[in-house]
Write a structure and sequence with these properties.
It comes from Caldanaerobacter subterraneus subsp. tengcongensis (strain DSM 15242 / JCM 11007 / NBRC 100824 / MB4) (Thermoanaerobacter tengcongensis). By secondary structure, the chain is α/β, with parallel strands linked by helices. The chain folds into 2 domains: 63 residues, Helicase, Ruva Protein, domain 3 (Orthogonal Bundle), CATH 1.10.8; 186 residues, Rossmann fold (3-Layer(aba) Sandwich), CATH 3.40.50. 37% of the residues lie in helices and 18% in strands. The strands form 2 sheets. A 7-stranded mixed sheet has the order 5-4-3-6-7-9-8, with helices on both faces. Strands 1-2 form a two-stranded antiparallel sheet. β8 and β9 form a beta hairpin. It binds glutamine. The site of glutamine (GLN) has 13 residues, from α6.
Length: 281
């Protein structure tokens, strides 16, 4: 892409937007966001700088970000952040980018918590769920586990950055494998990988840049529900709950797994698109 010697802020936005036209549905917005990231300022400040000429290193950074975005790297991996539950999480290629739908899971978990509760988050990734719960519920302790050492590094970094490291215990664990047998939880939450193997290749290019480990739910997409739910009984207190995010069309099957494993009072919460999104047993 040609940057052309010097560019003013408004010209850079237009150039970026043009370059991103074929890549994303909101090229102007993303161009503005990438430019404000290059200038290390808030997007709202772009307006007052409209006619300022970009410094050489600012233009260089901006063009580099635009190139990355053109190669379908998600915007969040370029700026290394994503907002979730009002908090700013650091993200990179080691973790799934937290999705807005997952905020429903956090809200439903918070509604059911009481003082002193012990929570387990399975497959914590960036730590989005565990850290949001620790931030928003004053008196609780959270265990956050992930099979990926790399993901745990990101989650620990976020816990430090957001000031809740002392409320969370991080363990490298394949589901329950390394959780001490004598620890019992009030609530087990998870947003497990739930995409069917056959659908993985049809995903948007951006999603393909996310860790496959965080997406692949096996042949039927239910692999992790089948592994997690039956063992919950060994780790839940009496009357404890399991609360999981599910994918489109998975409600009936996951409900069946719950019922077959001694859970009752199954509740389902829909997302804004009216898709069954969170299931609670
Ligand atoms: N718990 C993390 C999230 O919801 C990661 C989930 C995953 O990697 N499947 O964002």
């Amino acid at each position: 892409m040609k940057g052309g010697g010097s560019l003013k802020v408004y010209e850079a936005i237009a150039l970026g937007a043009k370059e991103l036209e074929s890549v994303c549905p909101n090229p102007r917005l993303e161009s503005e966001l990438l430019l404000s990231h290059s200038l290390r300022i808030d997007r709202v400040k772009l307006a007052i700088k409209r006619d300022e000429v970009l410094k050489e290193e600012e233009l260089e950074r901006f063009l580099k970000y635009i190139e990355k975005r053109k190669s379908r790297i998600p915007y969040q991996y370029i700026v290394k952040k994503q907002h979730f539950m009002g908090f700013e999480f650091y993200v990179d290629e080691r973790v799934l980018i937290p999705r807005p739908e997952t905020e429903i899971l956090v809200e439903e978990a918070l509604k059911r918590m009481k003082s002193g509760d012990l929570i387990l988050d399975i497959g914590t990734g960036s730590g989005a769920i565990a850290i949001s719960i620790a931030k928003l519920f004053p008196d609780c302790k959270v265990y956050a586990v992930d099979v990926s050492e790399e993901a745990l590094e990101v989650a620990k970094y976020n816990a430090e950055k957001l000031g809740v490291a002392e409320k969370i215990i991080f363990i490298k664990s394949d589901i329950f494998s390394n959780i001490p047998q004598d620890v019992k939880f009030d609530l087990i939450v998870s947003n497990p990988p739930y995409i069917k193997k056959a659908e993985l290749e049809n995903l948007q290019e951006e999603v393909k840049k996310e860790p496959i480990l965080a997406l692949d739910g096996g042949e039927d997409g239910l692999f992790f529900y089948k592994r997690i739910i039956p063992d919950c009984k060994f780790y839940l207190k009496k009357g404890g709950r399991g609360l999981f995010e599910i994918g489109y069309g998975q409600r009936e099957e996951v409900e069946k797994i719950f019922l077959e494993n001694g859970f009752d009072e199954i509740e389902v919460i829909k997302d804004l698109a009216h898709i069954d999104r969170v299931i609670i047993g």
